[in-house]
Amino acid sequence: MVLQSVGHVTVANPSHYEVEPQTSLVGRSLKSLKDGESFAVLDSHGDLGTVPNTAEGLFFRDTRFLSRMELRLEGHRLLLLNSETHDDKAALSVDLTNPEVQGVDRLPPETIFVERMTFLWKAVCYERLSIRNFTSSRRRLTLDYQFDADFRDLFEVRGMKRVRRGLTSVEVMAQDRVAFHYQGLDGVKRRSVIGFAPVPKALGANQAVFEFALGPGEKTSIFLTVACDEREPAQVMDFFGAYRDSCRARRARTADIATLESSSELFNEVACRATSDVYTLITASDLGPYPYAGIPWFSTVFGRDGIFTAMFMLWVDPSVARGVLRTLAATQATEADPQSDAQPGKILHEMRHGEMANLGEVPFRRYYGSVDVTPLFVMLAGMYLDATGDLETIASIWPNIDAALRWIDEYGDRDGDGFVEYYPESSGSLTNQGWKDSHDSVFHADGADTEGPIALCEVQGYVFAAKRLAAQMARRLGRDGAIGLSAAAETLRTRFEDSFWDEELGTYVLALDGAKRPCRVRASNAGHALFAGIAAPERAARVTDELMNRNGFSGWGIRTLAQGEARYNPISYHNGSVWPHDNAVIAIGFARYGYKAEAIRVFEGLFDAAKNQELRRLPELFCGFMRRPGRGPAPYPVACSPQAWAASAVFGLLAAGLGLEQVQADNELRFREPLMPSFLDEIVLRNVHLGSSRTDVRMHRYGEDVATTILSRSGHAKILVIK
Hints:
The protein is of the alpha+beta class. The protein is built from 15 helices and 35 strands. The radius of gyration is 26 Å and the shape is globular.
């Protein structure tokens, strides 16, 4: 690994922030749990760390507090019967049984049943074992847990190497408790406290042994807790009380959301999984709900991911957008700091809490190296106001919106050419700072690297939309500047067409480099220009055709980079893979310009992909190989799953097909030229939000036509179907 010096701190070369493929997440069936700042990655047995150098573990605030937990009966690993993550309770249930155990008192196979249930609640992992004897005789059994805590920073788990680490120690605190301590180099004391009930027969630094006797048909229970203490101890509850509170909190989070039910059981499963994933990833704070990006690599605040998730969820639950806006406003940069790529008014890219971030070994404690998040923040504010009419929230963050607009014009466009560019501020900065932030994702047609500053195609679209929506917000708030913002947006539209359109390619170029030379590359970025509304209508048609031809569309979705381009690689992170959120953004853009059939093809492709995934879950991304009969999409080896913007893409795709528009200023919920995919005959949407109004709607497909029936309505919203 190449290391670079930034001040007195040694940091990794930016390319090494990327997740290395040796930490594959698809070689074994993994299960994930999350609550608040903690998450767990376990194998299908409910164990973790039985295979070295994996992403398994119990994590809290970007640190692995438990690196091994293995359950054994009579010294043997149990046999798996079933392993299932609950959709509605964020708990893992595992059914296990014994292999044959030879010895003086032979234990026949499959005669001891072990039920294992695990969940997280307020920085504590809870587990209950229920053990039952199905033999015809009384049995003395020995069960043991083996455990360890390595306190690795998440970036170490991802593959980064460190020169120094803090001090780890372990103590048996009592007959029923073991504590692992870590004194970090950042001065933070971290501790994992493992508790057992009943008291084990023997308890050591890395093992707890239980001995018990069970008569025929008898059963017993063992309880385990792992408390993640950082600065202050976590409060450990009894298993049943914690589980009750966890379930109640989850039900409360989803009590007022819109729901759907369709004629397709498979789509119902996909939608239920998407809902469960989004609300599993949502973390509550005083500022409101925020969807953490994904497990395992990105379980924290990411500005871009949170914004797109909130956009897709606006018709389902606008409170997500409110929480995202308030959180990003509260963390907006107020001063320049080259080490974190911050300038006044810029919106957060990523926030980390681990030791490496605290020490500056990675720059992500509060990192602002995204060129697109600031205009996207303004876009989300405008879209949220359209959907809710919540002038109070928009007024409260208007100083942040105003600061974001100033950043766009002053820091975003330093050379004054009218385009927003990025240029890494320090040697530790991300090389590329759009949503495709791999080090190799921006290049020229011959494959050559680019020299910055870089003006990305999609970013100009976001700026255009941000200024138009800011003008609308200013008018509704009675603020000055609306005319100037609208004029600036139109000027940008003209300049964008002149500089980014490539007649020969038939699409918008990927970017302009520092010399204003176009990167003549066919990429999915051009589809975001349709999403933002900056594309000329006649050119939108050609962009659509280019994205949906064989080079662009794999059959499962639109590739990030078209086949035939110099760096095309369907197994890469950003140069030929398929990302569900990217496809949802593009499908919304297609629908915006009237290309509903193409939007539906994208929807159908991703639905078919979800059908082929474990748990019907859309992952962060998958490989961009052409669809082949009888085979599902090839998984990307280190894709996060669940991932918030992938899960919420389901709702963005559905809204694109149905033409669902929330226009609170006109008190109208609109369905513009609704079209339904072939896998749906009927769908019922319940509790759809428009300001304070709520509506239930049934939509039925007759060929290519859709009939709409209003089932119920509270409030005064008008329901319009526009054909």
